[in-house]
Each structure stands twice: as C-alpha cells, then as structure tokens.
Amino acid sequence: MLTADLNLTRILNRLQDGHPAEKSEIKYLLGLSKPYDISLLFEAAQNVRDRYFGNKIFLYGFLYFSTHCRNNCRFCQYRRSNKMLARYRKTQTQILTAAREMADAGVHLIDLTMGEDPELYSSGESGFKRFVGMVKAVQKETNLPVMISPGTLPDRILVELADAGVTWYACYQETHNKSLYKNLRYGQDFKTRLAKKKMAKGLGMLIEEGILTGVGETLDDLADSIIWMRDFSVDQARIMTFVPQTGTPMAKIMPQDNLKEQKIIAVMRLILPDRLIPASLDVDGLDGLKARLIAGANVVTSIVPPQKGLAGVANHSLDIEESRRTPNHILPILKTCGLEPALPGEYQAWTAARQTALSSSFVKKEKMIC
Ligand code: SAM
Ligand code: MD0
Ligand code: SF4
Questions:
Q1: 313 ligand 2 Cβ < 6 A
Q2: How many angstroms is it from 239 CA to the middle of ligand 3?
Q3: Ligand 3: centre distance to CA 150 (Å)
Q4: Exposure string over 211-248, b if 16+ CB within 10 A, otherwise e
Q5: Read out DSSP for 85-129?
Q6: d(CA 268, CA 265)
C-alpha cells in the first residue's frame, strides 16, 4: 500500500488550513521526488485552487509587438547581441487587428509585451507617447483589461499608464538571488527592477512577478523567491522553465523537464492560494498545458493568434502558426481536467476586487504613517 510520510501529510494539511509556511517546509515540498508524494502535492494544490476559483480558468492573449531590445539578458533570444535573429516591430493597426481577433475568440485579457525597444527607449518622450497611445487604442478596441510587459519604463510613463486604467504591470526578476540575477539579467540593476514593481503597485496596478527554473538556481533560491512573492503580495506569480536558445551564451545548458516547474506551481498555489498562477503555452506548447493545470495553475497564458507573424518569448514559434495556441484548442484540454473558462465578468470582478483590496490596504498604511 502507498503511504505518505507523516511529515508530508502534516505540512500539506497545515498549508491547506491556511497556516503560514516555514521556509524549510517550502524547500521540503519543492524537493519531493517520489511520484506518490508528488501526486499528493498536486492534489492539495488542486483542492486549494478549487476552494478559491472553483473550476474556472482565465485566458490571456499575448502580443509580442516588438522583438527589438537594448538589453542583453543571457537567457533570452531577443538579447541585443543575438544577430542570428530576424526581428519585427508591429504597427498599431497590426496590433489592433490581432487584439480584436483574440478578444473575439474569448480571451479575458490582452498582454502587450516588447523588448526594451531602442526606438522607444532612445527617442525621449515621443517613443513612449506612441506606446501609451497604442495601449489606450487596444483598451478601446477590445474593451478588455490590459497587462503591459514593456520592461523598466520611466516613472512618469508608468503614472500615465496607471491613469489610463492599465490593470497589470509585469516585470520579472527571474530570481531573487542577487548574484544569479546579475548573471541572468546581465547589465541591469536588481534594485531598479524591484523599484518599478513597487512604483506600479503604489499607483494601483496589479503586479505579476516571474521566476525561471533550470538556470542554476537552488531550492533555497526558489523558496526565497516564493517568500518574496508572498511578502510583496504579488497578484500573479509565474514560473517558467528555461528553454535554451541558439545564439545566446546559455545555448548549451541542459534543458530541464517540466516536473520541477509543476512542483513550483503547486507550491506557489499552496503559499499564494488566492492568487493567479499561469500555465504558459510558451514553454512546452499545447502539449504541456494539462500538466500545469494538474499542478494547480489557473490562467492559460501566451495564447497567440496565427498568421500574423507574432512570436513567443521562450519559444519563438512553437504551436503558433499551427493555430494550437488558440481558445479552440485549449477548451477541450480544460474539459478533460474538469475545468472551464471563466466568464469575462468573472475575470473583471476578480481584478476589481483585488484592486479595491489593494487601495484600501494602501490607505490604511498611509493612515498609520500619518
Ligand atoms: N522585455 C521585457 C522584460 O524583459 O521584462 C518583456 C519581456 S519578458 C515578458 C520576457 C520573459 O520571458 C522573461 O522575463 C523571462 O521570464 C521569460 N523568458 C525569456 N527567455 C526565456 C527562455 N529562453 N526560456 C524561458 N523563459 C524565458
Ligand atoms: C507567457 N510569453 O505568458 C508570455 C510572457 C509576459 N507577461 C508573459 C512570459 O508565457
Ligand atoms: Fe530584452 Fe526582455 Fe529579452 Fe531581456 S528578457 S533581452 S529585456 S526582451
């Protein structure tokens, strides 16, 4: 007969009952290796997801509108020094067409992502003004909430975007270990990236934090990142497995299978029970979706419309032109897991409740300081 060790049962019960986790418990769960133990971890994560979200899953459309970048992240194919890559910069009309198509297909949010495109970042005010105009146009065209993932924007532009009602700011640290960060986000300041998230949060935007696995991080690093996410009170917590890219300094790193990512998703679900946790189609494509849902994810991200010449982040083209990153292909997989897409109003109710809770806790903090 299969039995779990008593320690595992005790930890899973404690976390499911809402007790705060110790770092040693997080590391213990991340380090599980026996298939039966891991299945208990996933079951606990599914129970918790069910308690907070029922069987409802959110769907995010992804538009990588410029693949030009001034930075040199060592893990990323879009790094400045990669000369092997054909890059693009889509026009506003092309973006609006793709956004409309995804809205019609039933996504709940549009994620507008770019490299730190020198055309914006080196053109003074005018480049960013065009970006703000495009974001507003997408909001108007689709009537959907928007996430922006544009890198470390100047503070005044973040203010403008918050004023324009942008719901989410995504800016991933990748790791909270400063020396690993320095190696991954080569040439970029750790504190500056953190400060942008803090600023956006203070402006009332919801924050997505993201980390990578398979980049030489330890269980200790992963536990620190999860605790950081809890302490910062992130609204969406992402884990992605590193996909080695030709033309980059990390091209020869051995790719990691998806079990570690699944375990991290499940642990994040237990530590951040009421938060959004993505299952990205960008790492393993449609074939990797079920495993991530089984681990407790509740958002499908990187839905990309075909025949538009749009790229992914971790995988440039996986499943995109085959139309496999579309709601039509995703819905049957949700069904086999006993899940279904949320109604648009349910997604918007979640973000609105979260933003209201954020602003009232901000007001409380301000009062305490006065
Ligand atoms: N340029 C902006 C930035 O870096 O913040 C926006 C792009 S950001 C959404 C791209 C994210 O995709 C990275 O932060 C990283 O987490 C992930 N990513 C990039 N290259 C990857 C790779 N080779 N494997 C897995 N994830 C990757
Ligand atoms: C994804 N490629 O969802 C996207 C990306 C940016 N906010 C998200 C990492 O997988
Ligand atoms: Fe540029 Fe973002 Fe890629 Fe880094 S992760 S090279 S900032 S696109």
A1: yes
A2: 16
A3: 9
A4: bbbbbebeeebbbbbbbbbbebebbbbbbbbbbbbeeb
A5: ----B--HHHHHHHHHHHHHHT-SEEEEEE---HHHHTSTHHHHH
A6: 5
pTM over 0.90: yes
% of the chain residues with pLDDT over 70: 97
d(CA 333, CA 327): 10
Q: Phi and psi for 168 in degrees, rounded to 5? A: -125, 145
Domain ranges of the chain: 56-369
116 within ligand 3 shell (Cβ under 6 A)? yes
- Determine contact, residues 174/184, Cβ cutoff 8 Å: yes
314 C-alpha to ligand 1 centroid (Å): 7
For 210, the 3-state DSSP assignment is: strand
Report helix, strand or coil for 133: helix
| Digit-coded pLDDT (tens) for 139-175 | 999 999 999 999 999 999 999 999 999 999 999 999 9
* Amino acid 365: pLDDT: 62
Contact between 343 and 58 (Cβ < 8 Å): no
Instruction: Tell me the mean pLDDT in the region 194-211.
Output: 98
Which residue of 66, 78, 111 sits with most ligand 2 atoms within 8 Å of its CB, as the best mutation to test the pocket? 111
- Find out whether the beta carbon of 311 lies less than 6 Å from any atom of ligand 3: no
pLDDT digits (tens, 9 = 90+) for 308-323: 999 998 988 899 888 8
Closest residue by Cα to atom 2, ligand 1, is 151
* CATH, domain range 56-369: 3.20.20.70
